[in-house]
Structure formats: structure tokens, C-alpha cells
Amino acid sequence: MAHTTLLYNVISLSLSLAASALAPPPDTTQQAPTTVRAGYYFADDADLWPLSALDASLYTHLYYSSLSVHPTRHTLQLPADLAQARLLASFSRELKGRNPVLRTLLSLATAGAEDAAAGAARASGDPAFAAMAADPTSRVAFVDAAVRVPRENGFDGIDVAWRFPASVVEMADFGFLVAEWRAAAPKGFLLTATVYFSNHVFGAPFAGVDYPSEAVAGSLDWINVMAFGLRPADAAATVTAFDAPLYDRASHFSVSYGVVSWLDAGVPAGKVVMGLPLYGRSWFLRNKANSGVGAPVVAAGPKQRGSNATGAMSYAEVQALTTTAGGRAPVMTSYDNGSVSSYLAVGDVWVAFDGAAFVAEKLGFAARCSLLGYFLWPVNYDDANLTVTRRASEVWEQSKISSDLRNVTGVRQGKAPFELPPALGSPSPASEPVPVPTSASFSWLCRKKLDARLHLSVLIVLLY
């Protein structure tokens, strides 16, 4: 077994070196992007959606997700699998061949974080990432490899997807890490981070942990806010719940709170990118006659080939569920305009998901906040027509030229419970095009500027 692993590593290194000779070097003179239409491509799910099937023109940036920190050596762990090594070596070259202005980034993530529905609220830290970041020597060596390997394979940058720093000390180490990355990276090399809320990471076995917002704002080109995975779908869940609501009447488990937490922490809106899930969260209902939000459940939903996990379905599988049910079970689709969320129930299976209509609504919110852009998680999970991907790109491009959406700031979700305005008209579940959100349909967003009253972070001096 050891010989096999060594052979794979040798092959991986050979492929990497070959790719560096074939792929054009990353453009290290590029200017900061004015907009981001990004997506994470899960390498482990390449069989669902090969690179050849991606429409590279729909993105400005694509992430290879992901490589991780070796659990004992604290070094960058290259793929041992031959197919994965080939994918890493060809990712940038193949995609840029179809879209020369595309920028690619290598995401460095917590091992196993490719689970699309892995709840941000259930994060429990990453010991390997933490051990690497805590030791200055390991950190320097890792930073060197994390800049060198992407450049050798034609990537234009790296993404730090440590999910998540689990203490005040680890958050401080995160700040040191991104600052050292910026110092080591060549000019124009992109640095981003995949993050949760800026403070008070809910549901984790720690409390009062805030990101070092000054280091984030000063060192990174932008942050990708994981505005999904906000509710657990495991055995701890007892009722159905939305996974990525734009608003929440009773709590801060919402997209708007997550985004605004970063704006209130001092990170410029032009460095914030909002996440959109391309998966649905599913459960088995206790009683299929009771299928609303908050209905009792008995277990996470059925395991799917796409997500390879219980409790999660790719967007393509959500759509397929409505057709394969046929006449065997009625399909009920409901839209909640107060939270800007949707769900469907087929028999005893209940799924919360973001369809094209609510993606447009969410992007209207992002444009109102003057955010830099959005990212899709993961791009492998869209349907064969790329329904959500195309709709997101179309809406964002139109919102970029709309002064009604782009020149207004101050959108907030306040302390729960949040008094919502009257519901908007329900979007139709039919295939008719959904109008791009306008200032009229979103006028209520800025009718009342909300005081988030986030706690002031306390500057902690760590004594070693």
C-alpha cells in the first residue's frame, strides 16, 4: 500500500510539472476584479459533471475544490488518486482554453468539506489546519507550497477554506496566515477566503469567536460568505427548516445577517461575495399530511448519487424528483416570500432549495448591498440546462448596469425577530422567465435601515 501511495505521489508530481510546461503562466499583473461570478467545482464529483460540460463563459472565476492540509505532516496534501491528479493538472488549461479571461483559483479546504450540504452551523474546526497555522515554521512552509503549486498548475490564486477556526487563538492564527500569504504572493495573485459569519459562529462547540476582520480586509482580495448550510439535517434535527433563507423572522440564521455581519465588521462591500447553494436540504416527514416549514421529521432525506450524502440533493436531483414521482405522489411546491425561500414535498420527502426565481431575489439583495458578486456551491450540481447558473449570470450582469440596484447601500437585518414588510408577489413555479428585480420590487429593503447592533470585537493580546 505504501508503495502504491508513493507511486501515485510521483505520478502526481510528474503531471504537475508537465502541466506547468503546457499551461500558460497565471497573469500576475491583472487588476482587481470589478465583479465576480464564481463557482466551486468539486473535484470528487467530477463524474457528475466533467470539465468538458462546464460553460466557462458563465463565470469570471472558477475554484478547484479542493486540496487539504496533511493530518500529520501539516503540509499541502496533493491528490494521491491518478484521476484527481490529472484533473488538478488540466483544470486551468482546459477552462481557460474556452474562456481566456477566466481566472481560476485553488481552494485549500478542511478535509471532507466537499460535502455540499455540510452545515456551516455544524462546524467543529479542523485540527490539521489549526496545527499548521499555529506553528510559524509550518506556516511559512505551507504558504510557500500553497503559492508554488497553484502557479505550477496555471492557477491565478488560492482560496483559504479553513472550516472553521475554532477558538480565539485559531482566529488569530488565521489572521497571521492570510497576512503571510499576501506577503509571499506575487503581485496580482488572487487571495480569497471561504468564511462563515464574521462573528458568533453559531452551533459550534465554542462561543464568542470573531474573525480578524482587519487582517481579512487588508490581506484578501475578497471573501466568499457561506450563506447556506445554516440548519442541521442530521439526527439532531427534529423539524423541517430552510437551509439558506434570505431573512429569518426568529433568528440570525439567514443570508442577510451573514452578509451584513461582514459589512458591519468593516470589510468593504466590494470585497464581499455571497454564496448561493446548488443543492437542496432534505428530510423524511413523520406525517406526509403535515408538510409545512417546522413539520416534524424522522430522519435526514434519502442518500443521493449526486451529493453522496443523506439529507442533501443536487439541484438536478431536486428537479428530477418532481418528474420521477409521476402520478405516484402529488408534488407540492411552496414559496415563502417573507424568508425568500422555497420547498417541495413529494410523499414523505421534504426538500428546501433555491430555485431560479429566488436566486434572482437574493442577487437583488446582493446588488442593493453593492457586493462584489456571488459564487455557486457547487457548479457540479446544476441541471443539464444549467438553469440556475444561467439565471444567476443573467441577473447579475443586468444588475451591474442598473443604478437602481447598485448605487444603494445600507441593507440590514436587525435583531431577531425581524419585522418583515408585506410579502412580495409569489414567483410562479412555471418555466416563464422571472423578471430581473427592480427598485420597485425591492423598495422595502431600504425603507428602514436596520441597526444590527453587532457586538464590538474586543482586541485580545495573545501572550506566548
Calculate the mean pLDDT score and round it: 80
Number of strands: 15
> Given the helix and strand composition, which structural class is it?
alpha/beta
Helix-strand string:
HEEEHEHHEHEHEHEEEEHEEEHEHH
Main pleated-sheet profile: 8 strands, parallel, barrel
Q: Assembly type of the shown chains? A: single chain
Total discrete domains: 1
Return the CATH topology.
TIM Barrel
Distance between the termini: 41 Å
Which parts are unreliable, with pLDDT below 50 for 5 consecutive residues or more? Answer: 1-24, 403-411, 414-464
Q: Helix coverage percent of residues?
A: 25-40%
Which CATH C-level class is it?
A: Alpha Beta
Dominant shape: globular
CATH superfamily: Glycosidases
Radius of gyration: 21 Å
Assign the CATH architecture.
Alpha-Beta Barrel
